[in-house]
Automatic annotation (TrEMBL):
Organism of derivation: Pedobacter caeni
PROSITE patterns the record matches: PROKAR_LIPOPROTEIN (PS51257)
Full protein name: Lipoprotein
Length: 231
């Protein structure tokens, strides 16, 4: 066997090892990704008191109170917005508003500015949850009478909503919009409560925004709150 032949064989072996290493590296990354999805972040704190979330402070300080860090974010998608980031709470814990146990949440998200790390809004969503009316009562109890209240009712005979196809909605739907001003924490709380009596479904969204944030007006438009809560 000539020297050139031996060199050629050695080169082929080296290339095969390198290619195998690349493939194995790719496979390892895929496995790690699957394991991360199968083991989502867990809440370490026994109870999350949502009403204790104070805006206009560092997101790290907010999370620290619940034994969490940014690494516990349950939303793994990259946010392309240049102004803000979002932290989605893991939904494995026990969530309360004051003394009201909220049960299962759809989502609890805190939004904070990228440049200052300061939180300017948090949003809570409940869907087909029996505690929705109780949450509204709890807000009335702690903040008093709403500064804004509007009720809309859609029926087959008097449709005011459009369905997802852009046609007149025929189902019996009641939508309530409420706003409270929390002067102590300089925040505005918006609730949109939608009950579909025909389909026996319901959804409540609570949006809390720091009133003096530079994002306030933008968030009102972004969440279409300016169209609902008209002064």
């Amino acid at each position: 066997m000539t020297k050139n032949t031996i060199s050629g064989i050695f080169l082929l072996i080296t290339l095969n090892v390198a290619i195998s290493g690349c493939k194995n590296g790719k496979d390892t990354k895929q496995v790690i990704g699957k394991e991360a999805k199968n083991h989502p972040p867990q809440i370490k704190h026994q109870t999350i008191l949502i009403n204790t979330i104070k805006l206009n402070q560092s997101i790290d300080k907010i999370l620290q109170a619940f034994d969490l860090t940014k690494n516990d974010n349950s939303n793994s998608e990259y946010n392309l917005n240049l102004a803000y980031e979002e932290f989605s709470f893991p939904l494995s814990g026990n969530f309360k508003y004051n003394e009201l146990n909220l049960g299962k949440l759809n989502s609890l998200v805190v939004y904070y500015l990228k440049d200052s790390n300061s939180a300017f809004s948090y949003e809570l969503e409940l869907e087909n949850n029996p505690n929705q009316e109780l949450l509204i009562k709890e807000l009335n109890k702690s903040l008093g009478k709403p500064a804004f209240y509007k009720k809309l009712e859609n029926t087959k005979e008097h449709p005011i909503f459009l369905n997802e196809n852009g046609e007149q909605e025929t189902q019996h739907i009641i939508e309530e919009s409420l706003k409270w001003n929390d002067s102590q924490n300089k925040s505005a709380l918006f609730v949109i409560h939608k009950k579909n009596l025909t389909g026996n479904t319901n959804k409540l969204s609570l949006i809390v925004v720091y009133s003096e944030s530079k994002m306030f007006d933008e968030w009102m438009k972004f969440r279409s709150l300016d169209m609902t809560f008209i002064k």
